[in-house]
Specification:
single chain; about 325 residues; Rossmann fold; 2 domains; 11 helices; globular
Length: about 325
Amino acid sequence: MTKPENQRRQAGTGHGPVHPSAVQTEEIRQEVFDLYDDYAHSRITRKDFVQKLSIYAVGGLTVPALMSFLMPDYKGAVEIHADDPRIDSAYIYYESPKGGGRIKALLCIPKDVKGKVGGVVVVHENRGLNPYIEEVARKLAIEGFVSIAPDALTPLGGYPGNDDEGRAMQAKRNKEEMLEDFIAAYYFLKDQKNCNGKVGVVGFCFGGGIANLMAVHIPTLAAAVPFYGGQPPLDEVKQIQAPLLIQYAGLDTRVNAGWPAYEAALKENHKKYQVFIYPDVNHGFHNNTTPRFNRPAADLAWKRTIDFFRLYTK
């Protein structure tokens, strides 16, 4: 199966970063994206990833070129920078007594905010607070929300500057303790002077799973938006009070396999939810730093996210 037309990205034959102006363009098979998903979620080692990737290095396309094509491009993809005049942002620390102790986070506040506004906790993927997640926090502030994006890697020194090391570091942390870190961020944000006390959560991949769990564990959570996140234990769904906006990628068979049982539990317990499954896009389609990014689906999912938070945190 080949990758859909709107997900194609230039892949050159050199060993450096891949740019849209690359000399040679190759069509990347869906199996390559599935393989990257296995690697990004630590189901295979880097050595196995490179070895299996070589199967798809055909013609003039080299393994290094494929690697460069697949890996995040944080410098080239940033659209909203830290010094954007529309927001005030700073790194702060808050206490997580049941989790990792003192946690570093990016706090973003709309510039010249008048009165109190809704808040959103942004939960990162399985690799720490990287530039993509920081930009999500800034985008929320531009839309009029106070946002906080914690770094669950803080107890281990913080996001190390690259996703491979970040992934290895995060694997060393206890998931329940990390959940407590994000729950603590909710209560920290709820008490901020610019926040009206109504706080939601958005999370991606690992963060989507945490968003589901926060809905289980925080009765006063205003809203939860899990992007392609693992489902919570089905016997705990009855505890959910927050409305849910659940967003999945159509090609993400791994995560989507858990959706039918989750939906049945939501219906059985009369929970308020919406679900959108975006066809022909990969897990991670909202992340604009990798070739899995799909602009139409990402824009639509983001609009739905903002509208949802405006409805439930105003």
